[in-house]
């Protein structure tokens, strides 16, 4: 293996004459790649879990208390606004990842993301500095949104380019598994804090604990990444020909159809992920009247099964193809989403848990397949950009806004099934987008 501190250009130069020779990747290196990809996305979604699951507490800390529902809407509004910078981050991180290398982009994105998360733990509340508190919170969430825009796309491209050709789906499934694990640990921590601390202690200092943990985890992730060589596919592409012009410019000029299809395919994932896995505890407690501890418990049980289903889905997509699995996911959501939300209002805790497991399993068919599908849609020279732009545009418009839109739809319509209809609409659009695309699982990476 080459020295990990060499730049991609230096690594490529001596290989130019033999760029057609395949690079041999050992199992130890692949394990490091998996660990490096896992940590960054784990930290990112652990933070989102902490923010989402403690939304009621954060609303009380950072906004006026006179109107709790308005405070909760503003809390989710800050969550949504942080996603608006994601397309900007997608363009920049995608450009850097395709131009100078996946490893370099990922090493800096995790440092910036975890630094902003850590700083949130240090913020004073509304009672101390008034509206300065939510303004500072928004500023740090914007930094998080910008830096996180490169994580999911970069880690997925990294894994797909390191994976054996017949196991790209399984390797890429590590990324959504890491996000679900982050949500799971965040859910467990939120449940523990909510159950063990008084409301006063939780609002005073307890909510800060999850955000403080970002710093050591982020430093570990960055250390692992700096010890890796860039992906074989990127090094081979760099050795064959130096990158010319802007990857994003090439993306829009030569691959705009794939970009539109990819953005549409992401829509179900964007809405489903945040409605089912992030917003659900708030929905169960605030809209259906389930106590907070049982809401967290139901979501935690669903997340435990979700992580296992993710890897099964990765293997299914390797066996049956990306399109078939993604289309199955969309059809199931069209048929079953609204009945599932109706069952959540049954009043039975067992039924609530079973419904969450069911819709979680349905979502894994999309979530576990999407990383390999998106990475394979674009050639190596624009892979990071294509993935980052399509994924972050859909998430900015429909993912980060999902908790806010769900809360607003219920408030304006008075119908607690409104999030289910919203999710069903997203599934229809994703179904059309995937149906119009080509199968990618059995093609070599371009």
UniProtKB/TrEMBL annotation:
Phosphoprotein as a keyword of this entry, yes or no, is no
Record protein name field = Proline/betaine transporter
Question: What residue ranges are annotated as transmembrane?
Answer: 45-64, 70-93, 105-123, 129-149, 170-193, 205-224, 259-280, 292-313, 325-342, 348-365, 386-410, 416-438
In this protein, which residues make up the domain named Major facilitator superfamily (MFS) profile? 33-442
PROSITE patterns cross-referenced by the UniProt entry: MFS, SUGAR_TRANSPORT_1
The keyword Transport is assigned to this record: yes
Membrane topology, from the record: Multi-pass membrane protein
Give the UniProt keywords, A-Z.
Cell membrane, Membrane, Symport, Transmembrane, Transmembrane helix, Transport
Q: Where in the cell is it found?
A: Cell membrane
Domain of life per record: Bacteria
Q: Where is the signal peptide?
A: none
Q: Which family does it belong to?
A: Belongs to the major facilitator superfamily. Metabolite:H+ Symporter (MHS) family (TC 2.A.1.6) family.
């Amino acid at each position: 293996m080459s020295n990990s501190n060499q730049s991609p250009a230096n690594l490529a130069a001596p290989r130019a004459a033999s760029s057609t020779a395949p690079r041999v990747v050992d199992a130890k290196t692949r394990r490091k790649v998996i660990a490096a990809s896992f940590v960054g996305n784990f930290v990112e979604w652990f933070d989102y879990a902490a923010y989402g699951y403690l939304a009621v507490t954060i609303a009380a800390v950072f906004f006026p208390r006179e109107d709790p529902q308005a405070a909760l809407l503003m809390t989710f509004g800050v969550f949504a606004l942080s996603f608006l910078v994601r397309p900007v981050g997608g363009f920049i991180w995608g450009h850097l990842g395709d131009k100078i290398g996946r490893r370099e982009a990922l090493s800096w994105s995790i440092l910036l993301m975890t630094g902003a998360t850590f700083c949130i733990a240090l913020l004073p509340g509304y009672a101390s500095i008034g509206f300065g508190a939510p303004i500072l919170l928004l500023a740090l969430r914007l930094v998080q949104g910008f830096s996180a825009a490169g994580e999911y796309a970069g880690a997925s491209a990294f894994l797909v380019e390191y994976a054996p050709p017949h196991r790209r789906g399984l390797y890429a499934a590590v990324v959504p598994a890491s996000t679900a694990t982050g949500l799971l640990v965040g859910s467990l921590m939120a449940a523990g804090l909510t159950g063990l601390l008084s409301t006063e202690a939780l609002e005073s200092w307890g909510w800060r604990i999850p955000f403080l943990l970002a710093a050591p985890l982020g430093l570990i992730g960055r250390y692992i990444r700096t010890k890796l060589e860039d992906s074989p596919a990127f090094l081979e592409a760099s050795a064959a020909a130096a990158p010319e012009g802007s990857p994003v410019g090439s993306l829009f000029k030569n691959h705009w159809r794939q970009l539109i299809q990819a953005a549409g395919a992401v829509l179900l994932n964007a809405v489903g992920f945040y409605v089912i896995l992030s917003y659900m505890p708030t929905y169960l407690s605030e809209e259906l009247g389930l106590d907070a501890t049982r809401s967290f418990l139901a979501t935690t049980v669903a997340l435990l099964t979700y992580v296992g289903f993710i890897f099964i889905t990765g293997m299914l997509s390797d066996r049956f193809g990306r399109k078939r699995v993604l289309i199955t996911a969309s059809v199931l959501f069209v048929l079953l989403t609204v009945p599932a939300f109706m069952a959540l209002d049954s009043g039975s805790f067992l039924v609530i848990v079973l419904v969450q497991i069911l819709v979680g399993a349905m979502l894994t068919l999309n979530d576990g397949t999407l990383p390999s599908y998106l990475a394979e849609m674009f050639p190596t020279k624009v892979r990071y950009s294509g993935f980052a732009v399509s994924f972050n545009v859909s998430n900015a418009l429909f993912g980060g806004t999902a908790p806010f839109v769900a809360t607003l739809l219920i408030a304006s319509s008075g119908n607690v099934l409104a999030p289910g209809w919203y999710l069903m609409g997203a599934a229809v659009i994703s179904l059309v987008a995937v149906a119009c695309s080509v199968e990618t699982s059995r093609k070599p990476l371009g």
